[in-house]
Amino acid sequence: MIRKTLMLLYAIGAYILSMAALVYIMGFLIDLGVPKGISGDTIAAGQSLGTWSAILINTGLVALFGLHHSITARTSFKRWWTKIIPEPIERATYLYMTTAMTALLVMFWQPIPITIWHVRSDLAAGFIYTGYASIWTMMVAATFHFGHFGFLGLTQAWQNFRDTKPAPSSMTARYLYALVRHPISLGWMLAPLMTPHFTVGHLVFAAATFAYILLATPFEEADLIEEIGEPYRNYRDRVPTFVPFAKRRLVDPDQRRR
Questions:
Q1: End-to-end Cα separation, the chain, in angstroms
Q2: Strand, helix or coil at 246?
Q3: Nearest CA to 32 among 42, 18, 45?
Q4: Residue range 29-48, pLDDT digits in tens
Q5: Beta-carbon neighbour count of residue 171 at 10 Å?
Q6: According to the model, what pLDDT value does residue 147 have?
Q7: What distance in Å separates the CA atoms of residue 91 and residue 78, rounded to the nearest whole number?
Q8: pTM
Q9: Which helix (H) or strand (E) holds 173?
């Protein structure tokens, strides 16, 4: 019982830290309410390395964060990883690693405060901030579609603590997931753009994130097809990847199996 209690406390810690990291990133991307934002601290002293060096470092940081996510989220990695980490805290451990990667990204990020656009109208800026908040609200809401607390590692530890079995996984395409297959990824592509003061640093983050998502999504979907099978193939044929209401090309089932 002590072991299960410790696992539950471990998962609770992961949940708290991951939510704190998420809130920090929200402020980081718009330079609001955090000690160091994407354009720098109060001194904005990130130009000493030179612009191109800063671009390379920042791109590498986003790529490192993406590689962590891509590798540790793969089904094949999880099969190996759960031989070392108990399954009830596998997701929580992933969140601890993600929080550490977020801290590294923020700590070593090189601000490039060269302005691309700056909206000075308070009304227009208010609309932009509202859009920014709406994107994050959408992203958080999307986690409840398949179980917010399971997504953040609590459900697994709680079921282990209570000696209950997880419910069989099932696939439903409702709400946000009836519009696009990857609403969270869509949010990550849009959020860096929603700022009144858009700098080269924002552009680097946005471009690197966009490129990573485009490269990683096929691998993520391959895992989903392996896990869910034909229902996900049908879903993929009906629902667009990122752009709501985009027309999907219907694929003949016989052709798809070739």
A1: 51
A2: coil
A3: 42
A4: 999 999 999 997 643 444 55
A5: 14
A6: 86
A7: 9
A8: 0.87
A9: none
